[in-house]
Amino acid sequence: GADVAVFAGDRRGIIYVQGEKVANVPEEEILDRLQTECLDFQEKVRRGEAKLGEKKVDIVPPDPIGDLGSGIEKIRAGLVEKPTIGRT
Fold first, then answer.
1. Residues 6+ apart with CB under 8 A from 55
2. How crowded is the C-beta side of 43, counted as CA atoms within 13 Å?
3. What is the pLDDT of residue 24?
4. Burial of 13 from C-beta contacts in 10 A (0-12 / 13-18 / 19+)
5. What would you report as the CA-atom Rg of the chain, rounded to the nearest whole angstrom?
6. 33 in helix, strand or coil?
7. CA torsion through residues 29, 5, 17, 63, sign
8. Given strand 12-17, what is the order of strands in its sheet?
9. Per-residue pLDDT tens digits of the chain, which is 88 residues long
10. What are the angstrom distances between the C-alpha of 3 and each of 14, 19, 54, 79, 81?
């Protein structure tokens, strides 16, 4: 698995470091925050506080509605009050 991962969806990104969710940010902040998290992780590895490939937890993909703001199945099932499909 990846030491640093990002899930991106409907104008949001969720960043994980060694399996732990560390950020849920708007799309315009994804790259800056990803770089920050990568540099922070690099420093932890250099200090011996973390090891490459040593995840703390298994990554569970985010809920498309709750975390990323899309999810056609939940929208069609009437589980979402304000659909985001086709809106900008």
1. 1, 3, 18, 19
2. 5
3. 93
4. buried
5. 15
6. helix
7. positive
8. 4-8, 12-17, 20-26
9. 689 999 988 889 999 999 889 999 999 999 999 999 999 999 999 999 999 988 776 666 666 555 555 566 666 777 656 545 555 5
10. 14, 7, 7, 34, 36
Quote the strand ranges of 1-88, DSSP E.
4-8, 12-17, 20-26
Give strand pairing partners of 5.
16
Helix boundaries (H) for the chain: 30-46, 72-76
CA distance linking residue 42 with residue 29, whole number of Å: 20
Domain ranges for the chain, please list them: 4-61
Q: Please list the residues that pair with 23 across neighbouring strands.
A: 15
pLDDT value at position 17?
93
